[in-house]
Amino acid sequence: MVCKSLIFALTLFLSLFEVIGNIDEAKSGADTVSDIPLGVIDKSLLPVGYSGHEKMVFDVSWTGGIKIGELHLDINTLAGEEEAFEIRARVTTRNGAVNLLYPIEDLHVTRVRGGKRLPFHYEVWQKEGYSYQAHRIVEYNQSAGYIRYTKNDKLAGEFRVAGEVNNEFSSFFNSRLMELHPGKKFIVPTFADKRRVEVAVHVMARENLNNTIFGTVRTIAVMPIMTFKGLYEKKGDTVIWYTDDECRVPVRINSKIVLGSLTADLTAYENPAASCFR
Hints:
The structure is a single chain. The protein has one domain (about 1-270). Helix content is about 10%, strand content about 50%. The chain contains 3 helices and 15 strands.
């Protein structure tokens, strides 16, 4: 269980992430939260949030500051297609305390398109421990409400969903570009646990956050509430701190686990469009 929690943290977003691993059979349906509005991307934030040249590196540490791994995130423009981008997430325990015990080298690639930046292709190559390897592909037909999942080149599931969906990577990047008003909530529909889940994102409060890569910065904290389990154990609240400006840089993520908590701190950031931190 602890290993699952460590993997979950590293495969990050400690909030909105990798849930396709245990898909075995088709299931449809939706969790609805009728009194919370659907989140909408603020188009004025797209030039920075989807500049196509953004790079982030996070150190992931366990309670007490023990580094267990790193998360590397890139958002690149997809050549030859208008309004299409590739989100690349590399998860590694290299340079972390658990690498000898349980090495992880995973690469997650999500391709999104259109004004809503919805996914149309997701692919992951997993190398975990000393023997486990897997290659997974999820293809999204948003207009038809159809999702096709293959694992190690074999069809592993076909799903019908009522409405557009994010995956957990696009959920993370898209939710940071929505209106963040303290005390408010919004829904980000996400395909998870074989169904369309309406993830409620709670906007908490503005606060000054110390000891970030940018020094002390004004942030706005959000807390996504998961009603699904997914591949990795989630045992408590996850809080994400974004810079409270048009750049919306995620500078810290904290998630409670079975034993203590895990924190992802931003340690490197590049984005030519982000004038906030030049």
